[in-house]
Hints:
Layout: E1 2-7, H1 16-22, E2 27-31, H2 38-41, E3 48-52, H3 59-64, E4 68-73, E5 76-81, E6 85-86, E7 89-90, H4 94-100, E8 105-107, E9 114-119, E10 124-129, E11 140-149, E12 152-163
Parallel strand pairs: 1-2, 2-3, 5-8, 8-10
Antiparallel strand pairs: 1-11, 4-5, 6-7, 9-10, 11-12
Amino acid sequence: MIKIGLISDSHGYIDQKVIDYLQDVDEVWHAGDIGDLRVVENLPRDKARRIVTGNIDDQMARQSFPEEIWVEIEGLKVGIIHIAGKPPRYAKGIKEKIRENNLQLLVCGHSHICKVEYDKSINCLYMNPGAIGQHGFHAMRTMLLFEIHNAKVQNLRVVELGKRGV
């Protein structure tokens, strides 16, 4: 079993509240729009990291992290990409990537809207943790905590981190 802390859209901001939630996970995933590499530097150092870049990330971030991750964890096929749209209206080419990689879990960011939905049309769980940052139109800062065990996502929790700008 692997415990995951999923964040996105930090836009250069991370606070102690986020870091405290990440203390109890095995892996930290960041679904893009890091904004400033100091965000990554402030993540707990003893955790495995899976980080992708987003549309606001600069060349230094792009040299450090990929745009996409396709991986199998505990028997679960996972894709992490910043811009993916949402079920049933995915961004161009995303459904094809889901099918090509036989994904069971698609993780993305970009919208700043926390959403988890199983898309039965392609047999894939969609997860977007919302945004942990202060920049954007979201009202509530959010992240997701969950576990992967025997090719299944379990014990999923939405964490509300407080209102943006407060």
